[in-house]
Q: What sequence folds into this?
């Protein structure tokens, strides 16, 4: 089995790949595709769908966390929750540092 995806977009891409394998195998040689291979691909798809479902639940929790942070005017918590959501959706996207983070690292402000 290949390395498991880390983000929802990667999970979706992987599931498309699995489905494509099933269709390609069936189109090339419908009689020779083994039940074992179909079961293997279906099992992988099931596990990935379960992973995606858990990621959706986690994203929902982070969205509620962001809403509560907005109500409390806690910009850092909002940013953290939204950054977590973006990472879960696509781990290849980097969230730019906030202005506060940039200021904290500015050597000109060192005392």
A:
């Amino acid at each position: 089995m290949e390395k498991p995806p880390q983000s929802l977009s990667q999970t979706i891409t992987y599931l498309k790949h699995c489905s494509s394998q099933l269709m390609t195998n069936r189109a090339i040689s419908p009689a020779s595709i083994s039940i074992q291979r179909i079961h293997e691909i279906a099992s992988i798809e099931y596990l990935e769908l379960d992973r995606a479902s858990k990621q959706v639940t986690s994203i929902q929790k982070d969205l509620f966390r962001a809403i509560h942070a907005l109500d409390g005017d806690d910009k850092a918590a909002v940013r953290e929750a939204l950054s977590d959501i973006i990472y879960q959706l696509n781990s290849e996207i980097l969230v730019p540092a906030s202005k506060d983070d940039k200021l904290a690292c500015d050597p000109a402000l060192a005392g």
Notes: The chain is about 70% helix and 0% strand. The chain has a mean pLDDT of 80. Residues 19 and 41 are 8 Å apart (CA to CA). Residues 8-109 form one domain.
